[in-house]
Amino acid sequence: xxxxxxxxxxxxxxxxxxxxxxxxxxxxxxxxxxxxxxxxxxxxxxxxxxxxxxxxxxxxxxxxxxxxxxxxxxxxxxxx
Length: 80
Description:
The chain is mainly α.
């Protein structure tokens, strides 16, 4: 039995944060982690110092982490 006086269910999926932000955060975090691994492996494999671009790429790790936290907070908000 259904209640005829009940309001109809919303006509669409609930409001959600875009999944693109999550994928971008994961990609930046993973790229940063790969750069960190490369920084540690460079002296072992080639007896030279890591390049500057590896250090700059490693800074994507905290950026991806912050974007992931932002996505979690944004997607967890209740719609009004």
